[in-house]
Amino acid sequence: EELRQNLKTPTFDNWQWEDAEIMVLLQVMFTDLDFISSFNIEPEALQHFLFEVYRRYNNIPFHNFKHCFCVTQMMYGLIWLTDLRNKLEDIDLLIMMTSAVCHDLDHTGYNNAYQVDINARTELALRYNDISPLENHHCAVAFQILQRVRPPSSASLCFQLHLNHLGVSWPPECILATDMTRHNEILNKFKSVLPAFDFTNKEHKDLVRALMMILIKVSDISNEARPMEVAEPWLDCLLQEFFNQSDVEKLEGLPVSPFMDRDKVNKPSSQIGFIRFVLLPLFMELANLFPLTFNDPKGHRCKRRRWTEALDSKFVLISLLGCNNISLSASKY
Ligand SMILES: Nc1nc2c(ncn2[C@@H]2O[C@@H]3COP(=O)(O)O[C@H]3[C@H]2O)c(=O)[nH]1
Ligand SMILES: [Zn+2]
């Protein structure tokens, strides 16, 4: 029971769990949101689906099955934190959770900038005409999996049938929204619909879609909103994947993104701008919609200057998520 409750909070520590256990935790989340009963999904079908998802994440430093879990778990935490069960329809929650699970399927560890025509010209970039090649591929793999997942008895519907039946365009919208080149477009759309937001108005489908996109984006880049001991190893994984890519780019004579170059990047330089200018503005917009508690972070200033701003932002983030019980060891930096 304690674990069940813990799973609903953004402080959850993924590093304590093996992949097989993570699969069970994913199942618990889907079950505790009542998807099994609301959509008449057989537990075996869910299990089968999650196993296929697990098989289609690659063994790479960052965009792996554990990242898929963290994004899904943050989405799950946000659903509870913002009481979305009483605000959105079950089908919207199912779409959000399924999108989170599928959002980086078969990621190869090389970002879109590497894939596209002016750089490595990969098969994915050719297939998708340079338009969000990775995210389009994650969607395509998600569809393959969903088509193959058949419940043992034909009596209950599988996910895809449900989603088609309900006329929902899934999964493209939420998964495609995770392409960071669309960050400003999606954030601005959300800002523009915010004043008109009304959860009680069921006609407001496009507003809900804008919110769903923001929620998956927040979840996708939320590692730094987690406790230090969870967030730090994730940063190591991310940098390892960045450095792998830039090493290959150097070998192939391709342009190298400065933020991936092991000769130019260090941890503070990588995080300060990201937290301040990408992560925090996204969370702040969400806080405009939900009455998340906000504590003044000033009392926690850390001594070393380079990290001060990043850590202030981090305290704001953690306050927003209500994780004030975390003791951040700023002195480590
Ligand atoms: N610098 C930095 N970038 C991040 C962090 N978390 C996510 N990102 C970036 O945000 C991107 C989100 O989409 P991707 O998964 O393609 O790749 C991710 C990373 O490039 C982080 O903690 N620090
Ligand atoms: Zn991701």
From TrEMBL:
Residue positions binding Zn(2+) 2: D104
Alphabetical GO biological process terms: signal transduction
Pathway(s) where this gene product acts: Purine metabolism; 3',5'-cyclic GMP degradation; GMP from 3',5'-cyclic GMP: step 1/1
Database matches in Pfam families: PDEase_I
Main EC class the enzyme belongs to: hydrolase
Residue numbers binding AMP: H63, N64, F65, K66, H67, D104, D220, Q271
Positions contributing to Zn(2+) 1 binding: H67, H103, D104, D220
Record keywords: cGMP, Hydrolase, Metal-binding
Gene3D superfamilies assigned: 3'5'-cyclic nucleotide phosphodiesterase, catalytic domain (1.10.1300.10)
UniProt EC number: 3.1.4.35
Domain PDEase: 1-314
MF annotations from Gene Ontology: 3',5'-cyclic-GMP phosphodiesterase activity; metal ion binding
Highest taxon of source: Eukaryota
Active site: H63 (proton donor)
Catalytically driven reaction(s): 3',5'-cyclic GMP + H2O = GMP + H(+)
Database matches in InterPro entries: HD/PDEase_dom, PDEase, PDEase_catalytic_dom, PDEase_catalytic_dom_sf, PDEase_CS
Record's function text: Specifically hydrolyzes the second messenger cGMP, which is a key regulator of many important physiological processes. Highly specific: compared to other members of the cyclic nucleotide phosphodiesterase family, has the highest affinity and selectivity for cGMP. Specifically regulates natriuretic-peptide-dependent cGMP signaling in heart, acting as a regulator of cardiac hypertrophy in myocytes and muscle. Does not regulate nitric oxide-dependent cGMP in heart.
Entry's family note: Belongs to the cyclic nucleotide phosphodiesterase family. PDE9 subfamily.
The protein, known as: High affinity cGMP-specific 3',5'-cyclic phosphodiesterase 9A
Originating species: Poecilia latipinna
